[in-house]
Amino acid sequence: MRLSYKKTISFLESFVNYEKYAAFGYKKSFKLERVRNLFKKLKINPKALRTVHVAGTKGKGSTATFLSFILASCGYKVGLYTSPHFDDFRERIKIIKTKDSRPKTKDQKIESKLISQREVVSLVNKIRPVAEKLRCSRKSGRLSFFEVYTALAFKYFLERKVDFAVLECGLGGRLDATNLCLPDVSVITHIGFDHTQQLGNSLTKISREKAGVIKSGIPVVCARQKDTSLKVLKLRARKSRSPLYIYGRDFSASNIRLTRISTSFDIASSLGSLRDLKIGLKGRHQAENASLAVFSYQLLRQRRNLKKDCFRQGLKEAEISGRFQIIEKNKNRFLLDIAHNPSSIKVLNSAIKDYFPSEKIVLIFGCSRDKDVKNMLKNIKFDNIILTRADHPRAYEPGQIKEICGLRRCFLEDELKAALRKALKISKPKDLIVITGSFFLVAQARHLIHNGR
Fold first, then answer.
1. Which domain holds residue 191?
2. Do 123 and 272 belong to one domain?
3. Are 162 and 309 in a shared domain?
4. Burial track 153-186 (b if 16+ CB lie within 10 A, e otherwise)
């Protein structure tokens, strides 16, 4: 029986979703052998896709998006797989290309299209019998929501015959479902403390999990890292005989210029330096993420004889929600950012200083129970703070955050809608209302603000 779209979504959501759990057994729950078996039964050959694999703690989504738009602007059809999503799970699976798949001209826009509902139904009806059969195995455990979605993405990209697929790791790297790919290039963005209950409570342990994406002989592009992480990555790359290219040594962004609408920068690179590149995403950190994408393209160009220096428009057009996103509504300014660990909150705080040095900050904050909330709030300055929670099972209660952080002066609101009302009441038109701490909180806030609720 062919499922309707509504029943298709119910089927997909019936698989265990670890994105909703603050704590779970990582090694027990994540098994690549189970995913390998799923792919085999579905006749998905992950090595048949030409891929770039992106892992790391922060900057993964931005870097993957930049690279996808770069490739599209050079005339390639690109599959982009990211997680999590804001409103619709189809946001995770996109095709990015120019309208006629030829190199971009000045008047040609790059299209970014979600997988359609019809395509979701068609693909799920194909994979459902196998997924049902493998749903729960005594030997390999329960098939997860993310694993089924990953299979769906691979099958879709293969059927659509994309030239490249850019795959963002879900969690960690070594045991992540996306790690079945054999990439042309592996990218590791900044590594920091996050998901410590699963990946380990030290940078060494976390870095080992991220380093699990490094494949034998495959070049690795690496963001700036702390010495502890870099030591782990260098050791893994050496053992794998994988060339390792490091930000600050082999390439770097320089001469970064910030405006309210764009970020401009130069790239110094061992593969060819570039001047006056421009991106629409704001912040010095985004120039670094973009430089990772550009250098990755330069490596791909060497390995695959790709077109040269045709990607400026792609960089300029790349867009991704929830990254230092400014929304102005009814004379109020909201800044939405999905920063959800101490290092990303620190980067957000620096960006606020760059763009809004004199504005008073009203902070709406909420995070998941597995986060280092004390160090998150130590890394951001504010004039007023409203603690709240997303409508998500992993969310901290506002009172718990207050107690953990020892906050004396703060407002507590159990619902985000009430927190937004409180922020509007205590702020002045020139103040900046910053909403951060959780992807899920930002997703919900974005929906409420756009719909005027």
1. 5-317
2. yes
3. yes
4. bbbbbbeeebbbbbbbbbbbbbbbbbbbbebbbb
Collect all residues with Cβ–Cβ distance below 8 Å to 357 and sequence separation of at least 6.
Answer: none
CA 219 to chain centre: 21
- Which pLDDT belongs to residue 106? 54
Judge if 304 and 399 occupy the same domain. Answer: no
As a whole number of angstroms, the distance between CA 119 and CA 326 comes to 33
Statement: the pTM of the whole predicted model exceeds 0.85: yes
Q: What does the CA dihedral 30, 36, 39, 40 come to, rounded to 10 degrees?
A: -150
Contact 319, 290 (CB under 8 A): no
Higher pLDDT, 413 or 305: 413
* Beta bridge partner(s), residue 433: 334, 362
- Kindly indicate the confidence band of residue 100, based on its pLDDT and cuts at 50, 70 and 90: low
Let me know whether 129 and 204 are in one domain: yes
Q: For residue 266, give the CATH number of its domain.
A: 3.40.1190.10
249 and 131 within one domain? yes
